[in-house]
Design a protein that fits this description.
The chain is mainly β. It has one domain: Beta-galactosidase, Chain A, domain 5. A nine-stranded antiparallel β-sheet has the order 11-12-13-14-29-23-22-17-20, with no helix packed on it. It has a five-stranded antiparallel β-sheet with strand order 1-2-3-4-5. Strands 19-18-21-24-27 form a five-stranded antiparallel β-sheet, with no helix packed on it. β22 and β23 form a beta hairpin. The radius of gyration is 23 Å and the shape is globular.
Length: about 375
């Protein structure tokens, strides 16, 4: 008879423990991620500003205008949280951006020579907005569009989904292009961007994120950042920054970042700076691989870039002119750098390059992951 009260006590204890565990679990789910949004007036239209924050304190600010990542806030080795993207004093200022700060570039990121390409025997003339060339989608590219956007319901991450349909003929491109972006922040301080597109007519697509990074938190320029790019070859360019068609080895050149190198070490030998495509793969296979690592020694911040694209454009902020002053800091030349996963520049006119062609029934899918951590 004595064993029954003991068994009842045991069952009661297990029940109480189980309830405590469930309560703790709900509490964890609530504090791990903070996701909220507000409406912002931009010109005569409205945009949404999204704030994502994980349990580690990493924060991301997003705009439905331009698919812009306006801030990424991460800790340094001393636990100080700072924004590591070049940005504006307020989100409204992105409406007047001329530098492509942290925007979604498309329909075709990077340059197309003279804005012309041929597809199925027909020549298309795109808008030219970079001298005689087409750059980042034209005069009113995806970076200037108001995207439909909403918070994603996720169990173990915080996310935002955006969509925009580019009509047939916009900026000269053929086909109605239905495009979707997702931005997902997880508990491992990884920010994943997925870009998908479908068309009703044969076209070309090359989307990317044009983030300007400065891991010092804008305390200095990027010339002392240590960079590794996992590419043995790059595509040399002419005076208009259009690839010559050559795929050249980086070995024994100032373009060699196959092992960690300070960005400013040989930048003077390049002329105006780095604005070159690095060949990660000769063919597009859709597999996500590590492309690059960026480290700022003094802060201890490290960013690792992953993508499934065949190339990555390294741009050292050569055209930053100091006119933009944010939080009292003038963004002069080399104050931020971009690592833009992509198809190679001018690919529509280079059959030897991986093809950016998209046909009806196919799905374009571009995956980018930024991983942030601390190195001692």
């Amino acid at each position: 008879m004595r064993k029954y009260p003991f068994l009842l006590y045991l069952v009661f204890a297990i029940f109480i423990f189980s309830c405590d565990q469930k309560t703790d679990q709900k509490s964890i789910e609530k504090v791990d991620f903070d996701v909220h949004a507000h409406i912002l007036k931009m010109g005569d239209q409205e945009a949404k500003v999204f704030h994502l924050k994980n349990g580690n304190g990493m924060e991301v600010e997003l705009l439905s205008y331009g698919g812009v990542l306006s801030k990424i806030i991460v800790p340094d080795k001393n636990g100080n949280f700072e924004n590591i993207l070049l940005t504006y004093n307020s989100p409204e200022d992105f409406l007047y951006d001329t530098y492509f700060f942290n925007a979604t570039a498309g329909r075709y990121a990077n340059r197309i020579a003279k804005g012309k390409f041929e597809l199925n025997g027909q020549e298309y003339q795109l808008a030219t907005n970079n001298g005689e060339n087409h750059l980042h989608g034209g005069k009113v590219g995806f970076n200037k569009k108001f995207w439909d956007a909403e918070i994603m319901e996720l169990d173990d991450a915080a996310g935002v989904k955006m969509s925009y349909t580019s009509p047939d003929g916009e900026e000269g491109y053929p086909g109605n292009l239905k495009t979707t972006l997702t931005f997902i922040l997880d508990m491992e301080n990884k920010l994943a961007i997925t870009m998908t597109a479908e068309t009703d007519k044969s076209t070309i697509v090359n989307l990317t994120h044009h983030g300007y990074f400065n891991l010092s938190g804008m305390k200095e320029n990027i010339l002392n950042h240590e960079l590794t790019i996992f590419a043995d070859f790059y595509t040399p360019v002419d005076g208009g920054l259009i690839p010559t068609g050559e795929i050249a080895p980086v070995q024994n050149t100032p373009f060699d970042f196959t092992s960690p190198r300070i960005v400013g070490e040989r930048i003077a030998e390049t002329g105006n700076g780095y604005d070159h495509n690095y060949v990660i793969k000769r063919e597009f296979d859709g597999e996500v691989v590590k492309m690059a690592e960026l480290v700022h020694g003094e802060s201890g911040r490290k960013m690792t870039l992953y993508s499934n694209m065949p190339g990555v454009q390294f741009y050292s902020g050569n055209f930053l002119d100091g006119k933009q002053v944010t939080d009292g800091i003038s963004y002069t030349k080399n104050y931020g750098l971009c690592l833009e996963p992509q198809f190679f520049p001018d690919s529509p006119n280079r059959p030897e390059f991986p093809s950016p062609r998209l046909d009806p029934g196919q799905v374009y899918q571009h995956k980018i992951v930024y991983e942030f951590e601390i190195v001692k």
